[in-house]
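In response to the reviewer comment on reproducibility (Comment 2.3), we provide here a single inverse folding case reported in full, input and output, so that an independent group could reproduce the run without further information from us. The structure tokens appear first.
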């Protein structure tokens, strides 16, 4: 198989190119730790609120694919409401970092709003003031001009 063919298959299936190459028998170095075991550091509830402990090392999940060694999992515990579709699903994320507009705009992220005690899952849009954001989801009213303490991409 040529790399161009593997890239086309990767795009069609929505999987990483390295995975396609590895399944085709190529000797491909992993882009991260090559999958394996990742800590489950918390969960998201029916309202998109997250309960997290970034230092959690007890519970782990085995994931296929290539992820950086710092990748962790967050589980959806959503038995009712809109998010019930994802009940039990695991999402992979990286530890939180400072807000970077080019990284987080128009994407679903786990965000911490300054002055709030719980992180929330929201789509981040440009706010009406500099360095402020509008946070939207499917089940809650928008939060306008939120100042973010940190974010973590899904």
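Designed residues, in position order:
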């Amino acid at each position: 198989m040529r790399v161009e063919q593997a890239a086309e298959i990767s795009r069609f299936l929505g999987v990483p190119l390295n995975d396609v190459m590895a399944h085709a028998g190529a000797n491909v170095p992993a882009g991260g730790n090559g999958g394996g075991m990742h800590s489950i550091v918390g969960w998201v509830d029916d309202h998109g609120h997250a309960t997290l402990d970034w230092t959690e090392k007890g519970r782990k999940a085995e994931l296929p694919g290539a992820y950086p060694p710092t990748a962790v999992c967050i589980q959806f515990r959503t038995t009712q409401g809109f998010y019930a579709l994802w009940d039990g699903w695991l999402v992979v994320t990286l530890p939180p970092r400072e807000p970077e507009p080019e990284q987080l705009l128009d994407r679903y992220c786990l965000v911490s709003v300054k002055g709030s005690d719980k992180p929330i899952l929201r789509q981040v849009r440009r706010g009406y003031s500099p360095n402020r954001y509008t946070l939207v989801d499917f089940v809650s009213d928008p939060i306008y001009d939120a100042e973010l303490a940190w974010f973590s991409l899904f």
